[in-house]
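Retro notes (design track)

What went well: tokenization of the new backbones is finally stable.
What didn't: we kept losing track of which sequence belonged to which structure.
Fix going forward: every design gets posted as structure first, then sequence, in one message. First example under the new rule, 447 residues:
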């Protein structure tokens, strides 16, 4: 039985408005983590920082004062917002999430509420404004990442122990609200806010303030999209309130991980945000460990879409404003695959057919067109397909060769083999379109 909450979920079930339908149909997004942490790039005085590069200020080997003065040398002359937006367009990204301010508190826009901003750096110019304009020009929707954690603000606290803490934190709350209102006033084409750094006890205690702030921001931009990581309910529950209902417009719980089954998503919209190395969001000049290939990233994208989610791939530009070669190469490889196969991503989602080992199904939500996206070719060349009752597969063909006619063999009741022998070795995931007839009476051979 549900209890009454003042600051719990304000809506049950998915949003059905146009803005959210657009969000739901993106499929692929780009995350950009950029800031003064890109200057040290995971090193300090010859020492290697093993953590996530955007967290280097928290490293015991990094003197706080040294970090806090880095902005005085931030002058990314190679920064080219149009070039970044063009690359994202060619990769096939439909939206971008840009860090306006990460946990260190450095603002990439000339905020009037602090001096710790790009305006006070040698670079001076508004980075967020250039990126918003460039991505808008490419037709890529812009979302703004905002960290509640702000290690630079004197009023920031991770927890409120004393009355003095509480008093200071009131200034921080006002500052946070002011910056968010300022961002939406300066960049009204923003389609949504991606909040981070909201796990502190101090913030979790601000259920009423955060709820009211969310309401105010949504009134500024009708249709504004805010995920589940923004606020907690009055009992300190995050993402899902005391009744288990999601707060926000989509679940922001999939950071560097992807749901395994449709049950894992609880019927909610969701995004997965993913790094190319194991765990680097900001620029680290020396990636250690496994760097994902484009085949791996395309599989994560298709897996996300097949489970009704969006996949957001992170880019961490360096201190000069360059997108690093490894990211440029992957963006091009993903883009080349999307050029041919984008229709299995855009506007697609979960098909309730039993998942098979060879890969993922996606279905176009408008046309009902069904896709088999093959990652694991069986040695037999026989792709197993199990269909729901009263569904008969009639035709299968390669998306890339609509005239190809792939044999479908019925092997059991509601079970078929789609026989496909590639002429040349398969090097990239490929797509088979499968056409079906839904009938009332079940006329299959097998009872
Ligand atoms: C989107 C990503 N979220 C930020 C993050 C993640 N974490 C974190 C902290 C403790 C455990 C797991 C994750 N802290 N900050 C990363 O710095 C990046 O911005």
């Amino acid at each position: 039985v549900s209890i009454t909450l003042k600051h719990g979920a304000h809506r049950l079930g998915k949003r059905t408005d146009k803005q959210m339908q657009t969000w739901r149909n993106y499929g692929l997004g780009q995350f950009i983590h950029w800031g003064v942490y890109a200057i040290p790039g995971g090193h300090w005085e010859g020492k290697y920082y093993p953590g996530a590069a955007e967290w280097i200020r928290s490293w015991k080997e990094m003197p706080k004062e040294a970090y806090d003065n880095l902005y005085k040398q931030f002058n990314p002359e190679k920064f080219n917002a149009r070039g970044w937006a063009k690359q994202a367009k060619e990769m096939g990204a439909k939206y971008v999430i840009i860090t306006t301010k990460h946990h260190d508190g450095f603002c990439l826009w000339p905020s009037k509420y602090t001096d710790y901003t790009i305006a006070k750096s040698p670079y001076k110019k508004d980075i967020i404004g250039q990126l918003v304009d460039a991505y808008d020009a490419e037709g890529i929707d812009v979302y703004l990442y905002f960290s509640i954690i702000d290690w630079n603000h004197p009023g920031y606290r991770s927890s409120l122990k004393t009355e003095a803490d509480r008093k200071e934190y009131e200034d921080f709350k006002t500052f946070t609200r002011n910056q968010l209102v300022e961002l939406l006033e300066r960049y009204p084409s923003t389609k949504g806010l991606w909040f981070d750094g909201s796990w502190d006890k101090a913030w979790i205690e601000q259920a009423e303030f955060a709820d009211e702030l969310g309401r105010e921001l949504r009134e500024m931009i009708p249709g504004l999209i805010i995920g589940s990581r923004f606020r907690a309910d009055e009992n300190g529950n995050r993402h899902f309130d005391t009744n288990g209902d999601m707060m926000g417009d989509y679940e922001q719980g999939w950071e560097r991980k992807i749901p395994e089954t449709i049950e894992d998503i609880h019927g909610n919209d969701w995004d997965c945000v993913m790094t190319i190395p194991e765990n680097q969001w900001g620029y680290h000049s020396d990636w250690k460990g496994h760097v994902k290939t484009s085949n791996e990233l395309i599989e994560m994208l298709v897996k996300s879409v097949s489970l009704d989610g969006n996949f957001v791939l992170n880019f961490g530009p360096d201190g000069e404003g360059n997108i690093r070669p490894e990211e440029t190469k992957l963006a091009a490889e993903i883009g080349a695959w999307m050029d041919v196969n984008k229709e299995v991503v855009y506007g697609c989602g979960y098909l309730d057919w039993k998942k098979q080992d060879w890969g993922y199904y996606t279905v176009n939500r408008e046309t009902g067109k069904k896709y088999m996206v093959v990652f694991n070719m069986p040695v037999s060349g026989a792709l197993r397909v199990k269909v729901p009752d009263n569904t008969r597969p009639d035709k299968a063909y390669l998306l890339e060769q609509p005239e190809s006619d792939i044999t479908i063999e019925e092997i059991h009741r509601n079970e078929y083999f789609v026989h496909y022998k590639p002429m040349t070795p398969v090097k990239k995931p490929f797509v088979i379109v499968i056409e079906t007839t839904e009938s009332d009476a079940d006329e299959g051979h097998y009872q």
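Added context from the reviewer: Residues 33, 52, 54, 196, 255, 273, 281 surround 2OX (CB under 6 Å).
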